[in-house]
């Protein structure tokens, strides 16, 4: 019997399955996941406990049973036959669908240098366990890539007594998605903790015990981790004739060029009217798009609209951001204990983005209110954003016209 089939049993896929049920779909719902066991969250993989990688299930067997959701774990999807509305599984079976969601995420970008097979990546619980079992006290770890994942991992491994070197091909760490003033503070903290960060370098080759750079410098390494970003998983969709553009192209309802097939999460590239294709790689985006896709699979007509929220914990510092945080900030709000928030306004004085850094959750409340301000699209004076005594919640009310 045909029903809803969701390929990808991660945060996005699981959210979609439960959202479809919550929206009244009473047919068959099947989750297909290529990893064995219950679905689990990815962010805790870079934040282990004393025993190693933290496995935090997204749902339980009882929760799935209560909503009559079938989980096919350890099963891959090999092919989509749009003519017969079936998915060919790695078991050899054909799984029919009424509507199909591709929540197949992204895969770590691979190094292309000689000896790249010696570098491990961090994407699965098995990856995490391998890293933490090797990164014992006194180990020399080289992390290639100075993005959020690379720096989060560096903070954890330094705390475990590792000598950590981070290699970055670009001119600065965190150059892609973190405002420069906040990135600089994070980098300074890493350096103070003993992390060696080297930018503008290219890896020539990796051996079992060292990383050699173009130019001849060699860095001893007991463990090498590649953290150079991810690429969306699109092969399954492309083979089925779906449009591809930095991901699986979907409209704002998360529907592909096949009206019965949707895509959401890291693999989805949303074609916004007037803004073009945009893809988001955050935990909150996987949740949000999953819920919207799930409701639409059940017959709703919801649309996805930014802003998207992100966070990163490194040492005792908490980084949070929402919306568009590129370019020069319009306003800086300084809070107690060296916490600070950067705000970004558009030409109409509407808030479009905010990012903050502080100890623990020092900026969490204000970033949550900034999220609401972005959605409200009200005009705001930069001076109010800069003044820490101004309650951001009050700015949600539009200023009366004279």
Structure explained in plain terms:
- With 402 residues, the chain is α/β, with parallel strands linked by helices.
- It has 3 domains: 4-107 and 230-297, 3-Layer(bba) Sandwich (FAD/NAD(P)-binding domain); 116-226, FAD/NAD(P)-binding domain (3-Layer(bba) Sandwich); 316-396, 2-Layer Sandwich (Enolase-like, domain 1).
- Helix content is 23%, strand content 28%.
- The chain has 9 helices and 25 strands.
- It has helices spanning 11-22, 61-66, 125-134, 148-159, 180-192, 235-239, 283-297, 364-376, 382-386, and strands at residues 4-7, 29-33, 69-73, 77-81, 86-89, 94-96, 99-102, 106-108, 140-144, 163-168, 196-199, 203-206, 210-213, 218-220, 223-226, 230-232, 248-250, 261-263, 268-272, 276-278, 309-314, 317-323, 331-334, 340-345, 351-359.
- The protein has a 5-stranded parallel beta sheet with strand order 3-2-1-7-18. The chain has a 5-stranded antiparallel beta sheet with strand order 21-22-25-24-23.
- Helix 1 (11-22) packs parallel to helix 7 (283-297).
- The longest helix has 15 residues, at 283-297.
Based on Cα principal axes, name the global outline. Answer: globular
Provide a count of the helices.
9
Q: Could you name the CATH topology of the largest domain?
A: FAD/NAD(P)-binding domain
Structural class by helix and strand composition: alpha/beta
* Number of strand elements: 25
Main beta sheet strand tally, sense and closure: 5 strands, parallel
Q: How big is the Rg?
A: 22 Å
Strand arrangement in the largest pleated sheet: 3-2-1-7-18
Helix share bin: 10-25%
CATH superfamily of the largest domain: FAD/NAD(P)-binding domain
How many structural domains are formed by the residues? 3
Any guess at the CATH architecture of the largest domain? 3-Layer(bba) Sandwich
Termini separation: 63 Å
